Amino acid sequence: MAPKRPKGAGAFPKVVESPAPARPDPDALYAALDLGTNSCRMLIAQPKGSGFHVVDSFSKSVQLGSGLERTGRLSRSSMARTIQALRICQQKLKRNKVKRMRLVATEACRRARNSRDFIRQVKRETGLTLEIIQPEEEARLAVISCAPLVSTKTEQLLVVDIGGGSTELVWIDLSSVPRRDRSTAIMRLHNGFHTVDSPFPAAKVVDWISVPLGVATLRDQFHDVEDDAARFALMSWFFEENLADFAPYKDEQAREGFQIVGTSGTVTTVAASHLGLKRYDRTKVDGLRMTSDQIDKVIRGYLELGPQGRRRDPRIGEDRQALIMSGSAILQALLRCWPTDRLSVADRGLREGLLYAQMSADGVLEDGPF
Predict the structure, then answer these.
(1) Which of these, 108, 116, 167, 174, has the minimum number of CB atoms within 10 Å of its CB?
(2) Where is the Ppx/GppA phosphatase N-terminal domain (predicted)?
(3) Rounded average pLDDT over 333-359
(4) What digits encode the pLDDT tens for the residues 133-179?
(5) Mean of the pLDDT values across residues 282-300?
(6) Domain at 26-133: CATH code
């Protein structure tokens, strides 16, 4: 005997619609834009606990500093590329109705003779007001963005931000700060590198330096050297020569209690190569710790690949093959001076620092790491 058909078996299933995600309150949004020598990057975020949640983002290689080393000026073509990218940023800011923002430019605009004209052109054509920040603030913002990666065991910290046009190094003494408060002490540096009266144990900035050599400017210095290995060696030596005025340069640093945090496309690319990633994955890279020996092995692999091999490597690619070698030359010079078993990779930087600084100043972050 055939089973009875269940009642309602022929009815159409009831459609259950997921509610559309609520649009964030524009009053809770913050934006940070970083216009560097090579890239234009922006984040739009809202505070969440002791951090933030990213609502929208933008990143594009604009090569604003192309030709700057030779002419001392921003070229028409590089300014046009950059303004085109900034128009997209302006549309995102308008669409999200963002009211609180900091839009900053760094080394290329600090050095170019026509940067003020460029800033006025940006305002005229996009409505965005760019602010050229000084090296100390750039270094400070890079430092506070990396605060969550600082180990409680770290007593001496070196934060390195390898940019397109400059490299910032900040050496911080945390030995007088209780272990559990070390990340918090780093975050308090958003007020400045100079020690101020505070009821809290303070992180002491031993020294900081902004070297006017980044991945793009260092590459341009040695563009006429044809041999790949020779060019790399010269770039690394030249960068180390520019560290001579950095106070901790000559000090032998015990590996125990010493940490380097590196923030840049160079450091994240080296980390991705070390992990053997076929596709970049920020969750695996950000916060990864590497030893000097592991980094050196990756760099030697880049040299063995040569320019053509690096172009074909999916972790590097056509656009970055020359930049990765100038960045690696900087990284190798640093590790020659201060070898470490604890270099922390930071997929974060100026944008995150700008967001943390704005939110911290407004008091909208909950008690936590900061």
Answers:
(1) 116
(2) 44-359
(3) 91
(4) 999 999 999 999 998 899 999 999 999 999 999 999 999 999 999 99
(5) 94
(6) 3.30.420.40
Name the average pLDDT for the chain.
Answer: 88
- The two structure tokens encoding residue 82: 């950059």
* Distance of alpha carbon 163 from alpha carbon 217, whole angstroms: 9
Would you say 201 and 181 are in contact if contact means Cβ atoms under 8 Å apart? yes
Residue 316 is predicted with a pLDDT of: 87
Of residues 291, 290, 289, 268, the one with CA closest to residue 280: 268
Q: How far apart are CA 208 and CA 211, in angstroms?
A: 10
Please provide residue 31's backbone torsions phi and psi, each rounded to the nearest 5 degrees. Answer: -130, 150
Strand 39-48 and strand 30-35: the pairing is antiparallel
Confidence of residue 26 (pLDDT cuts 50, 70, 90): confident
Backbone angles phi, psi at 38, to 5 degrees: -110, -35
C-alpha distances in Å from residue 360, one per residue of 178, 320, 349: 22, 35, 16
> Based on the number of CB atoms within 10 Å of its own CB, is 183 exposed (0-12), middle (13-18) or buried (19 or more)?
buried
Residue listed under structure tokens 């900087």? 330
The predicted structure's pLDDT at residue 300 = 97
Mean pLDDT of 304-329: 89
SS3 content of the chain, % helix, strand, coil (to 5): 45, 20, 40
Angle (nearest 5°) at CA 31 between 140 and 132: 50
Q: Where in the chain is the domain with CATH 3.30.420.150?
A: 136-351
Superfamily per CATH, domain 136-351: Exopolyphosphatase. Domain 2 (3.30.420.150)
How many beta carbons lie within 10 A of that of residue 22, not counting itself? Answer: 6
Query: Which residues belong to CATH 3.30.420.40 in the chain?
Result: 26-133
H or E segment to which residue 297 belongs = helix 292-312
In this prediction, residues 91-110 reach a mean pLDDT of 96
CB atoms near residue 298 (< 10 Å): 19
Q: Give per-residue burial for 305-319: e unless 16+ CB within 10 Å, then b.
A: beeeebeebebbeee
**More confident position, 212 or 184:** 212
Tokens at 27, concatenated: 């009053």
